[in-house]
Amino acid sequence: MCGIVGYIGKGNVAEILLDSLQRLEYRGYDSAGLAIINQKNELVVKKDVGRISNLRNEIFQDFQSHSCTIGIAHTRWATHGGVTKANSHPHCDCKNKIALAHNGIIENYRVLKELLIEKGHVFQSETDTEVLVHLIEEVYKEKKGNLQFAVVEALKLVEGTYGIAVVCTDEPYKIVGARNGSPLIVGIGEGEMFLASDVNAIMPYTKNVVYIEDREIIVIQAEKDDQLKTYDLNYERVSKSVSVIDWDVDAISKGKYETFMLKEIFEQPDSVSTALRGRVVLSEGSVKLGGLNMTEVQVRQINKIIITACGTSWHAGIIGKYLIERFAEIPVEIDYASEFRYRNPIIQEGNVVVVISQSGETADTLEALREAKRKGAKIIGITNVIGSTIARESDGGIYLHAGPEIGVASTKAFTNQVVSLALLAIYIARLKNMPLYEGEKLLKELISIPDKIAEVLNHAEAIKEIAVKYAKVSNFLYLGRGFNYPAALEGALKLKEISYVHAEGYPAAEMKHGPIALIDENMPVVFIAPKDQLYEKIVSNIREVHARNGKIIAVTNGDAANINEFIEDYILVPQTIEEFSPIINVVPLQLLAYYIAREKGLDVDKPRNLAKSVTVE
Ligand code: F6R
């Protein structure tokens, strides 16, 4: 939610800030702004609603920044205050000397705002953030010449979450940053320094990154010996180490594809292969998971697993539950992360909490992790972003290795989440009760999945034709059973997110308990109906919908003759075992949603109201 960047160096500040900001746009894209200190030591602040391209036009029309060396910028996902220019960041103090970009929420902003107004501060926006810059101004008045002190003392008065970047014209050679609950990293370049919400922002400039932790304050400047200083809130120095990022820049460009989402859908044969690489040991019918940090004895002693996640990751988690219960025979609970921490989850000796998050920064998931930790659970984090907060705060974990996912709607992360959960389930099962031949059989099937996904992708044009046919419809139902019920949920979510069409995912057999009332000739129903032990049952559900004139789109490898007369459209998928079938079946659903959204002329990479990384609760 919201992206922040800061830059100090001899490059073209405005250009670098905008370029970095553009790579953070998936964190929010309601409005954007930047603040640069110019040669006359004045703050130049530019803001605009809408996309960063709007801001770019404005900047290059009337502002050149070649000779400037320092600035901060922000792309917004609105929380407090509407989407207006005035509410866009950066926000400034009364004298236009201090500018601040903020990601997070200042919860006690009302009380602070009243106090500051009494002291004569004048506010320009409706945001919670603006309070913080006036607070910093207030402290700065008392101890002039120490921006770091002013930021720390102001933050001590604030309740809430923040990742911030602050500049001040009285100290025009430094950026002060701080983090509590919203991600922040520092990039160390050659004679230049960056600060950003995540590594995507700065990848073309440097791969040397320092991760900032909660309640740490940083001061960055371009001078060689003094580039980064990190402190805690008591002004004690904190030592940090530099990590080297191994993603390359191509991974964050669209390449030959029209959108990131399409690229990411088509990357799935490769991303699934990468998730499997080096982890499958066929000869032992087993799996190597180096990062779990659990001994074999500890794994054998697991007596319950609780999976928690949000959105698409939660859908992967449901499949994870089914996989672990079936293969490893351990009871598994699954819960939305946002619900988990507000009930009283019972965690006992031998329980493990599996936390799933593509970004590794989702606030609800992170707080669920922390609550589980407080209750003594061992945490396994399944994340994509290396070095993300969830990855760092977990006791052990599995990286998805899906590469950067930029499209706001999650696709390749989902398939890699399910693959990772399958590996985890087989790993535990083999340490407990699963025979060698069974492990071997499952793993052989798992390594055949990338080719089967590639087969589905070969039918993209046919799926596009179906999408065009249904693009004007305003409601959809997605039905699946067993392992494909979560696939139905995921298919419906994809459609809602990017095409703004109302869609419901349901277990197919539940339809008769209510949703069947919705069915008429205007209701397309997508059935995920692979030929598995539930096939005949789902065929009955298909007939029930047909009898009520619903339009049926079947994703199946079943016997066409059996259902041909009832269905309107067909998406043929390759055969695999029931347990892995959602990994394949979700792909045509991603494409269906994609092409419907494109047919409606929508921006699939940045759907309205959404952001990739939801760092507010
Ligand atoms: C859906 C989507 C969201 C995320 C959810 C959790 O396409 O992207 O539903 O899955 O916000 O995000 P992560 O996995 O980053 O924790």
Q: How does this model look, in words?
A:
The protein is α/β, with parallel strands linked by helices and 617 residues long. It has three domains: 3-246, Glutamine Phosphoribosylpyrophosphate, subunit 1, domain 1, CATH 3.60.20.10; 257-454, Glucose-6-phosphate isomerase like protein, domain 1 (Rossmann fold); 460-599, 3-Layer(aba) Sandwich (Rossmann fold), CATH 3.40.50.10490. The chain has 20 helices and 26 strands. It has an eight-stranded antiparallel sheet, with helices on one face. A six-stranded antiparallel sheet has the order 5-6-7-8-12-13, covered by helices on one side. A five-stranded parallel sheet has the order 18-17-19-20-21, with helices on both faces. The longest helix is centred in the last third of the chain and has 21 residues, at 412-432. The mean pLDDT is 92. Fructose -6-phosphate binds at residues 310-313, 357-359, 362, 365, 409-410, 493, 497, 613-614.
Task: Briefly summarize what is shown.
The chain is an alpha/beta fold and 617 residues long. The protein is 35% helix and 21% strand.
Topology (SSEs and partners):
Blueprint: E1 3-8, H1 13-22, E2 31-37, E3 43-49, H2 52-62, E4 70-76, E5 91-92, E6 98-103, H3 109-118, H4 129-142, H5 147-155, E7 162-168, E8 175-180, E9 185-188, E10 193-196, E11 208-211, E12 216-220, E13 228-232, E14 243-244, H6 260-266, H7 268-276, E15 280-281, E16 286-287, H8 296-300, E17 304-309, H9 311-328, E18 332-336, H10 337-340, E19 351-357, H11 363-374, E20 378-383, H12 389-393, E21 396-399, H13 412-432, H14 436-447, H15 449-457, H16 460-470, E22 475-480, H17 485-499, E23 502-507, E24 524-528, H18 535-547, E25 551-556, H19 560-563, E26 569-572, H20 581-599
Parallel strand pairs: 17-18, 17-19, 19-20, 20-21, 22-23, 22-24, 24-25, 25-26
Antiparallel strand pairs: 1-4, 1-10, 2-3, 2-4, 5-6, 6-7, 7-8, 8-12, 9-10, 9-11, 11-14, 12-13, 15-16
This protein binds fructose -6-phosphate.
